[in-house]
Amino acid sequence: MEKDFTVQMKRDQELIERALSEVFRDGERYADLQEAMEYSLLAGGKRIRPVLTLETCRLCGGEPAQALPFACAVEMIHTYSLIHDDLPAMDDDQLRRGRPTNHVVYGEATAILAGDGLLTAAFEELTRAELPADRVVEAVACLSRCAGPAGMVGGQALDMAGEGRGMTRSELEQLQSLKTGALISAAAQLGCIAAGGSREDRDRVRAYAQALGRAFQVRDDMLDVISSDQELGKPVGSDQANEKSTFVTALGLEGCQRLVDELTGRAVKAIEGFEQPDFHIWLAESLAKRMK
Question: If you compute the radius of gyration of the chain from its CA atoms, what whole number of angstroms results?
């Protein structure tokens, strides 16, 4: 069974890679802007968020190919956030997905513009979906809400404000529910929107994705301690170097593992009411054990 889901995951990833490679292929190119955008966008990665969009569309009775523009838009937002997070004014990281970060290659100004370009182009990509207009409008509202000041950007602001001081567990949970969880939640909701899912369906996939996102971040904090630069494709120990509070500093490694298990169980429970939830269950359980 697990092998089948691995194949399904790979098939989704290949579909997403092909679609992303086409996003800027035929447009005008200005200086090295588009090259910088593609440098980060096409650098690989797990593509968890766009896969979640495609598979949630399938889960809710839709055709995943129809959700592909939504999936690409989510990944474009995610990539822009990574480019900006790596900047010297933020985390000042030198390595991302096993390669020098965008600003190291292209300079800070171009990196900022590359992030800006991906952010705005993501919403144009949403409008390319061949779906009823009301679904596209709802997708725009969902992604802008989850990616903006009430979501991912708000979480990054809390992250920066928390540097150099201890944060409580409740503060960490709020920070990560916005910085990481909001976009993962958007990815799942967009799949449901593309399929024309019911309000009940959307509530269930949102609950699943929120628990999944929290578990993902706690595991990420653990990997920053127990993994290596080679495995992660980015520097480990950067949280400590930047004097950031994490779930590891709040709970310890054993406490983090218990929390990951609890959140994964919560995600599974939220999704069990669907007719065929097996892929989503496998995904949650796989991410809980990941080493990179």
Answer: 18
Answer whether 0.85 is exceeded by the pTM.
Answer: yes
Q: Where are the domains of the chain?
A: 2-289
CATH 3.40.50.1980 fits 2-289, yes or no: no
Kindly list the distances between the CA atom of residue 202 and the CA atoms of 16, 100, 119, 195, 206, in Å, as whole numbers in the listed order.
Answer: 23, 38, 24, 10, 6
Q: Quick one: DSSP state of residue 60?
A: T
SS3 236: coil
Q: What is the pLDDT along the chain (292 residues), one digit of tens a residue?
A: 456 799 999 999 999 999 999 999 988 899 999 999 999 999 988 999 999 999 999 999 999 999 999 999 999 999 999 999 999 999 999 999 889 999 999 999 999 999 999 999 999 999 999 999 999 999 999 999 999 999 999 999 999 888 888 888 899 999 989 999 999 999 999 999 999 999 999 999 999 999 999 999 999 999 988 876 655 555 655 666 657 788 998 899 999 999 999 999 999 999 999 999 999 999 999 999 988 8
Question: Please, which residues have CB within 8 angstroms of residue 68's CB and are 6 or more apart in sequence?
Answer: 15, 16, 19, 54, 129
